[in-house]
Amino acid sequence: MIGSTISHYKILEKLGEGGMGVVYKAQDTKLDRFVALKFLPPHLNASEADKARFIQEAKAASALNHPNVCTIHDIQEHDGQMFIIMEFVEGQTLQEKKSSVSFKQAIDIGIQVADGLAAAHEKGIVHRDIKPENIMIRKDGIAQIMDFGLAKLHGVSRLTKEGSTVGTAGYMSPEQVQGQDADHRSDIFSYGVLLYELLTGQLPFKGIHETALAYEIVNVDPAPMSSVRPEIDPTLDALVLECLEKDPNERSQSARQIAIDLKRFKRESSRQRMSRITAARPVPDTRRLETIETATTKWRRTVWPAISGLLALFVVVLVWNPWRTSVVTRPVMRFTIDLPANAPLVGGNTNGVTLSSDGRYMAYCGLSGNTIRLFVRRLDQLDAVPIQGTDGALYPVFSPDDQWIAYEANGAIWKVPIAGGASERICAIEGQSRGIAWTHDNTILFGHISRGISRVSAEGGTPELITKLDTKAGEISHRFPQLLPDGKTIIFTVKTNNIATFDDALIEAERIGSGKRTILVRGGTGGQYVPAGYLVYGRGASIYAVSLDADRLEVKGPPVAIEAGGWLNHGSGDVVMAFSSTGAFVFAPSGPLSFDNVAEVWLNRQGKMLPLLDSARAYAAASFSPDGQKIAIAVQAANDDIWVYHRIRGTLTRLTFEGGNHADPLWSPDGKYVFYLAENGATPDIFRKAWDGSGPEERLTNGLNVSSLTSIRSDGKVLAFIQNGDIWILPLDGDRKPVPFLRTPAIERGASFSPDGRWIAYSSNESGRDEVYVIPYPGRDGKWQISADGGIAPLWNRNGRELFYINDSKLMVTEIKESSSFDFSIPKVLFTIPPNASIQDIAPQGDRFAAGVVRTQELTQSKLTVVLEWISELNGKFAGSKN
User: Fold this and answer.
1) CA-CA distance, 374 to 357, in Å (whole number)?
2) Structure pTM?
3) Is 129 a residue of the active site?
4) Which of 115, 129, 503, 574 is catalytic?
5) What stretches in the chain show pLDDT beneath 50?
């Protein structure tokens, strides 16, 4: 092939050959650059399985954009031969270079490889063949991970035979040797072998043939590195040996954390060396962000003189320490912050405002168009600035040094620099969080919609559950955590399966690791402790405080109402309020946020509203029976239930009574049953029940933690549901074992069977934003993108000839053409969706849509209230309450 031209690539020389590819250096004649082309070797090229594996490599690696991972430019086919176009790297493999690597270089290479692996693992990619031959050291010293030919992309079926092993002898993990499935922890084991070899010059396992080597990997613990090289630090020895634990659960869980630990080891080693040469010198603190650029400078110049005096006073007051119990003479100050008209605070399940510890910055969840994202405002300036890349953000919280903001979005917890930059993924949460806290030891605590409180390093890792639900007491969720000043005790809100609103929830404290809890408040939510000795929480239409001895966990005296407002969500327990360590207090002045004013209406094909149900309640997720005469619908509260509305009789009858949330009702095709999700246990599972309530409910899954129940096939044999952003199928015949159907690193939602059962429509953010796609069922041999500029919530007309979806505030429709394969027309706008309306289902006749419309209450707020010197006033109220 040398000297030939393929497409616009001129083959120059052969670079190497391995089991899964032949690599050539080539010149890109269009862009005038050198690239590397990797071809399947000729004797494998006819195999469809190897082609699929080759394409898998390209997809896995092209999903990554990281300096320590080889960049993939494209994948093409020439004369039936697949080839990948990748970055041309000038340098040597680590296999060629490892004999000359110094100790310092070994640490640097280890850090870079760990960083590259962390980037891959955070996208759901497992390499499965980490070894020196697959690490390239460039001439500038940068290490890059190569050859994802054995990568296991999240959701892609294994392309090796069942029971076979993949990887390279000597570097494989115990689970790979035994033919078991491999996750990211297998890469960590192989990485540990590589690092052990770099630092000691020998492998940790030394069987003289492959069988003996496999036995050692599975059964023999490696000797400490210090037994080979006594000068190796015990800290480094422990780090590598933890990577080499046989049990994946006892192994290091995060490549990101390994990189952090190695960087810390490198810094501390450097400090020890420098301390022998020169005395330590003070380092200037440059952490504080001083300015945020604004887009309205001219307008601000005209307004600033009128308010500069107040703002100056405000900033001066903020730096004083108000956490005192002595009498002060400064008066309480209350003033209003106006939020931008195009970025108001959004309500619901967000707890959407936070203050930096120094009181200089406020971040909040703002609604920009139809997208929630983070906004930051300096409190001595007038503008709120959006933080790019934070779409869908919930539960923002500042880091203790005020340089970062953590938040939830798309099934994960992220952090983003306050000064701007790319968000970094901390961990997956497998469901929905309920409240996030960032502690002074750089740990993230978060609550969960159906679990206890978890913690994870702010640098990333696998969350650890630190509180346990008492299911015998009906506990459904622990949420809104906060670490008390002792660093050993957390407070949190407890949701049980029998409360109607969070006015009846509990606020409890638990010494971490003890399992022993103390009830602090009966009837309240969102408790936050302030160092002056008060627990502040929301209940009803007010914010309350009660005196709390944080050491003894004793509440003293009755609670006192301190402010009207807090914008409490009775359904989720969120309270919009925040405190800084300097004593500033910000809250939403609105009363309770309730959805009991959601009207269920018809929307005809012109978007005109018509009445459907007579009275407004907290309706959600309406689903029509096959005959169109009945509607299964969720009614929201602290514990949601499913009701059935009979249109002929005009009656609304409750279907579920078992406690906990019930959601996502679906009718069976024969109209006899309603399927739904229920928290009848610790996690949401799938149940069904006769629509008229006769007979008990039937459990169909157990402990699955289903995210949403989305569709049932017209033959009634399978259900589609979403599990952690992937599409799963539940057979309703046989053993009813749920199986994944579409698993990708992207977030999939809204999977919906076509009326003939041949297709599944869904939305995915694989392109960087949500678009609607259609894929064959059950084959998956093809995929069609339906939307062109964004789309969610696909919905089929039951005649099978139309597919609807939502694009921003518009309902779109595409016509499905009759053919042997899938064919459709260019989507067009059917109508503009009315404000505050959410489309839920389409009538069987296809002539109208069911929608919920919020009638009398805004879901956004344009104002927040700031209070200064409020502790002195609170002290006075408690002094008065004792008299």
Assistant:
1) 18
2) 0.58
3) yes
4) 129
5) 149-166, 274-329, 882-883
